[in-house]
Amino acid sequence: MLFGKSFHLPTLCCMFGTPLSPPSSSNPSHRSPMASSVRIAVVGDVHDDWNLQEDTKALQLLQPDLVLFTGKSCFFLFLRKDRVQLQLECLGEEHVGYRRVDYPSLKLSIVGGRPFSCGGEHLFRKALLDARSQVGLRQNGLLLSHGLDFSAYVLDLVLSYYGVNCNSSNRNDSLRYGIQDLDGSAKRIYEAALGAPEDHSVILLAHNGPTGLGSKINDICGRDWVFGGGDHGDPDLAHAISHLKETTQLRIPLVVFGHMHKELAYGNGLRKMIVVGDDNTIYLNGAIVPRVKRLGNHQTANTQSSMNNKTSISSPNAEDTVRAFTLVEISGGKLQKIAETWVSVTGDETSLQEEHILYRREHAGTENPMQ
């Protein structure tokens, strides 16, 4: 992979495609950015199931304050370094791998984990983490965390809206990340979180989750493709989180990631998608794949592999679909509810089709994972 990302607008956030509202919008229907409650929409591994118009409609219904993308698996595509370079140059400082971005109006800080992670005990594509790159400048509030391999056409759709020009005037020479090993990666994640405002909650956004959350095939980061399972989490992410909790007063209520698909390999059932840690940090896997169900004559497309289940970015005659998001509700700095949410999009009509509650905070303050 393997990037994750988040885009923030004054009241809403979107990943790519037509924004839910222009950056200068004062639409009164939008929730106040100073509200004590915050709604986050998590989009797991996309695997080409993103439609510019249709997902915008769904997000307009959900009205999130922030949208976090965990990325999509692009193993073969990422072997083409030029495509990675193109994205990094165009996105510039909006890419927040190993970085922190603060949202004062939401009292949140998003800290990015390791780019290109594929899970396990080794760095994936080490050369990409250590290669030289040309990084552009921050543009108009458009923000990415770990990157995503989508086509140059999609980049044009996003960047042209925000007025981002991917020419040489937007590029500065720098080391891409300078990461040689997992210890160095853990240090970068740790350092990125330092300095978060005292009144902010910190959310870690990574492509893959940390180690230590189980080794059964259906655990949140468990290997489901080999006999006997195994913990396929990222040790550097786990170490960074542990070190932050031991040495700082930062509040880390939520760690968001994907990569490990909800539907297990070989038809072995479904994965646990949420874990509440002993210290009440919640680990959330958003990788619902495929995230789009096609209705009517296209219903059988649900069972196709993601590589064969592509959605046009700008199709003028989009199918009737149901689209998945994971909604996180925060109030008073505390997580209140997490739900797998499916939105029906039929033409210009949208409605909430299904909601599966994964977590609800009890009134007495106890944590209640609903899995």
Automatic annotation (TrEMBL):
<dbReference type="InterPro" id="IPR027629">
    <property type="entry name" value="DevT-like"/>
</dbReference>
<protein>
    <recommendedName>
        <fullName>Calcineurin-like phosphoesterase domain-containing protein</fullName>
    </recommendedName>
</protein>
<dbReference type="InterPro" id="IPR029052">
    <property type="entry name" value="Metallo-depent_PP-like"/>
</dbReference>
